[in-house]
Design a protein that fits this description.
The structure is a single chain. With 113 residues, the protein is mostly beta strands. The strands form 2 sheets. Strands 2, 4, 5, 6, 9, 10 and 11 form a 7-stranded mixed beta sheet that branches. Strands 1-3-8-7 form a 4-stranded antiparallel beta sheet, with no helix packed on it.
Length: 113
């Protein structure tokens, strides 16, 4: 089971980034998928979740209306579209399969002017 995140980087406040997480080694459509983040000196926190079919989503209150989680089961990939980014969104972002207990290696997002 492998999850590989990509798409992080440095962006100015108010900007956007799209994170991707490519899955392999398991039947992707059998797992809901989540994004988490961990800021420096803080505990890892849950950010968003999407159901197996992609028909239901839920978000951390502080990202509601700014972030969108989606998935493409044909490509075994989950996405996190992040808009109106704020400095407090700076963190390493991880994707996670609750069903299979797997984590990616993370991708760094830095929001700074």
């Amino acid at each position: 089971v492998q999850l590989v995140e990509s798409g992080g980087g440095l962006v100015q406040p108010g900007g956007s980034l799209r994170l991707s997480c490519a899955a392999s080694g398991f039947t992707f459509s059998h797992s809901g998928m989540s994004w988490y983040r961990q800021a420096p000196g803080k505990e890892r926190e849950w950010v968003a979740v999407i159901t197996r079919a992609g028909d239901n989503t839920n978000y951390l209150d502080s990202v509601k209306g700014r972030f969108i989680i989606s998935r493409d089961n044909a490509k075994s990939t989950v996405y996190l579209q992040m808009n109106s980014l704020k400095p407090e969104d700076t963190a390493v972002y991880y994707c996670h399969s609750p069903t299979f207990g797997s984590w990616g290696q993370g991708t760094q997002v830095i929001v700074s002017s």
